[in-house]
Design a protein that fits this description.
290 residues, mainly alpha, MetI-like fold
């Protein structure tokens, strides 16, 4: 009994520390601003018909109208309202990027747990594979995969998730290596717990901090990666209001002083990436200080 009491007390202290960390995180101004911006775009993605003043594919308005009271973001070369297209374009990004980030973190956590806890030839083999993937340029590999497998949301999500998996696995592996020799793991081994139980029920909750940081960071990278792939032609085809597609279709007009159809979707991408980065920085700074 006496051998398990310190372990129980230590786990209780860790839970209390995690609760205190979350209280500190949600009070940070950067976190609040980041969450507010993300929530705004989530609402736009969920209810574009209620927020956008016009249909994103409506051609009935005047062409090349600059921003003004009638059209706050102006109109594009075919007369479509840019504000409406920016609002509607949030749906594609926020449907693909979070799914890709979550899948990448999910598989990265499993791989990192296996590497860190089992060690030996499992860690050696997985480390070589991880290093090979980390040496590949994400966008180039994404383009090659999408060109080979076809252009669809499922393919984009799968490709980005696969490319994020080794990055997350490396972080989780390092965290698990620091945990596997601690007393609570030794106690679980002495109780005869299985390896799966120790990894997922004992170690995993205690490496949740780095995992949460990785998830928030990957979200920002996923938004940027998905938008970049759309810009390069691997996203939905025109006339989709996807932000990357809008920038790709209109950036050539910048030299003609026709800047607004490119500027506003580009700013939408930037605002979402910055917002997610603010959240990630807030989480990371609190967890690293604890």
């Amino acid at each position: 009994m006496s051998a398990t009491q310190p372990t129980t007390s230590g786990l209780s202290e860790r839970k209390q520390a995690r609760r205190e960390n979350w209280r500190l995180i949600v009070r940070r101004p950067a976190f609040i601003v980041g969450v507010a911006i993300v929530l705004f775009w989530v609402i736009c993605a969920l209810f574009p018909d209620f927020i956008a003043p016009h249909h994103p594919l409506d051609y009935r308005t005047g062409k090349h109208l600059p921003p003004g009271w009638g059209h706050l973001f102006g109109t594009d070369s075919t007369g479509r309202d840019v504000l409406s297209r920016v609002v509607a374009g949030a749906r594609d990004v926020l449907r693909i990027a979070p799914a890709a980030a979550i899948l990448g973190v999910f598989f990265g956590v499993i791989l990192g747990l296996l590497q860190g806890y089992l060690g030996g030839w499992v860690d050696l083999l997985a480390s070589r594979i991880v290093e090979a993937f980390l040496s590949l340029p994400v966008v180039l590999v994404g383009l090659l995969a999408i060109t080979t497998l076809g252009r669809s949301n499922v393919v984009v999500i799968g490709v980005v998730a696969v490319l994020f998996t080794p990055i997350v696995a490396r972080t989780v592996r390092a965290a698990v290596l620091a945990e596997r020799e601690l007393d609570y793991v030794t106690s679980a081994k002495l109780r005869g717990e299985s390896k799966a139980f120790i990894m997922f029920r004992e170690i995993l909750p205690n490496v949740s901090g780095p995992i949460i940081v990785e998830l928030t960071v990957r979200m920002g990278y996923a938004v940027f990666t998905v938008a970049t792939l759309s810009f390069l032609g691997a996203g939905p085809p025109p006339p989709s209001p996807d932000w990357g597609v809008q920038v790709s279709d209109t950036y050539n007009n910048l030299i003609a002083d026709f800047w607004w159809p490119t500027f506003f979707p580009a700013m939408a991408i930037a605002s979402l990436v910055i917002a997610v980065s603010l959240i990630a920085d807030s989480v990371q700074s609190v967890l690293e200080a604890s």
